[in-house]
Amino acid sequence: MTRTYGPQHAIEFREVTLAFGDRVILDNVSFEVGRGESKIVMGGSGTGKSTILRLALGLIKPDAGQIFIDGEEITDHNEEQLMRVRQKIGMVFQEGALFDSMTVYENVAYRLREQKVPESEVEPTVRQMLRFVDLEHAIFQLPNELSGGMRRRVGIARALVGSPKIVLFDEPTAGLDPITARTICELALKLRDLENVASIFVTHRLQDIEVLSSEYVTRNEQGDVEFHKENDEVCLVNTRFIMLKDGQIIFSGSDEQLNEAPDPYIRRFLQRRG
Amino acid sequence: MNLLYNTIYQLQEITLLTWRALRSLFRPPMYWSEMLKQMDVLGFGSLAIILLTGTFTGGVLALNSANTLQRFGFTNQTGELVATSLIRELGPVLTCLMLAGRVGSGIAAELGSMIVSEQIDAMRALGTDPVKKLVIPRIIALLLMAPALTVICDLMGILGGLFVAVSQIFQATSVYMASAQRAMTGNEIIGGLLKPVVFGFIIAIVGCYMGLSTKGGTVGVGRATTRSVVVSSILVIFVDFLITKLLIATILGYD
Ligand SMILES: Nc1ncnc2c1ncn2[C@@H]1O[C@H](COP(=O)(O)OP(=O)(O)OP(=O)(O)O)[C@@H](O)[C@H]1O
Ligand SMILES: [Mg+2]
Q1: Is the pLDDT of residue A5 over 60?
Q2: Taking Cα atoms as reference points, which of B113, B121, B57, B51 lies closest to residue B86?
Q3: Cβ atoms A36, A197 nearer than 8 A
Q4: How many CB atoms lie within 10 A of CB A139?
Q5: Which of A81, A83, A152 should we substitute to test contact with B (largest number of B Cβ atoms within 10 Å)?
Q6: B125 CB within 8 Å of a chain A CB
Q7: Which residue has its alpha carbon closest to ligand 1 atom 4?
Q8: pTM
Q9: pLDDT per position as a tens digit, B23-38
Q10: How far is residue A65's CA from residue A251's CA, in Å, rounded to a whole number?
């Protein structure tokens, strides 16, 4: 199989290595995320999933290797050049990372205000985003008045404002009730299938994996969104997986391949189903 | 050895942050409202402690100098002594030590918690340069507010001295004020304003650096706060010596 590099990928890691002190976190890791593809990243706690997202944003630099965003190499970019690249990316932080001195409204409006979008356009966008995550009622509350799940959803709304073409989700469903978690997965499906957004979706939850790898979304003639379950004939689902362990990618492929992977670690990971 | 290495490393990092701040000082975007907010929080918020510090320092100075001057029969020069000490030295240094304690620690703690809770990362991810948004407004606020508060401290000190002179050593108000006025020459005032400008900058940049370099969770925030107060206080006192030396060599020398 020949590997082609270049602008067809939304995100590409090429032989990326990163160590903190003498602890190697990522060891020669390569993968790519195509445009409109969802990449589910799995792996035990502390295997470097969040680190991968931080590298993709340019928040930290790799010790070796190259990182491309939208075909552009960002490895040696300075902060100013990175600012431009980050415009294309929305990031949902694992702990929310909301600005705690700002209201929910100001948090979600942050990116638009930074881009000097007139307030008359900011308000409807923010309200629409908050309706999307079902939090319009909390619009003028401060983050420390919200529950963990609400904070997570504000973080999602904040990341999605400005319609970024790449979205990085760091365990967006962890610790949420099944209905909210399902809503977040549906959101990811809509971004993938209707907006052609490329994403990295870090998760441990088998339900998320199930939804993201077996369902797809279309819009019918009336413009309504319809969810479909994948059957055997069609394979429209643009979701692929990687599994990290000990600094390496031990699996990369589709859900069928994942379910048939012989590796005992992967088998154990998936058998938590129940 | 480790201490020496750390000190040099930190000075280098502080210089780098200073350089980054200066370079982007006038580059848009400017966060005007953030600047005003910081002036209010850092400057106006410190007014009460500066009023108290100034008043009592002036009072103590008057007590001590009158006591000494009495022996030589020069008590009518109490005002000049109080005013000179305040304008040259105690006003700037005490104001800025107070600011290092109250404001420098606050800056380090706030930015430190923002680091720990990934808010700085989120800011960068959303396309904001934390130096522009957080560091520069604090530097500008302190560059303006430290001299302003110093002037207030000086004035309150002179008034505190007046109160002591009138009530404790039974001096006439006019005698004290005439004497105090002799201390307020142009050069003295320039010297007395140069110091807080430099100190204000030191407090802001050290606080920001310590906050932004926080490592290791909430414990790290505590450490950053302490370190910010210690380092900026020491720097204030050390740089005060250098500036005084410079001023005496140039505009304040008597020869
Ligand atoms: N700033 C840092 N300094 C030192 N070590 C770090 C730093 N950030 C992360 N690490 C280490 O890197 C490893 C990977 O961290 P990372 O946050 O990427 O894990 P993760 O896969 O996201 O885990 P989780 O599922 O628990 O979120 C961890 O072992 C952590 O100890
Ligand atoms: Mg993580």
Answers
A1: no
A2: B57
A3: yes
A4: 17
A5: A83
A6: yes
A7: A20
A8: 0.89
A9: 888 877 888 999 999 9
A10: 20
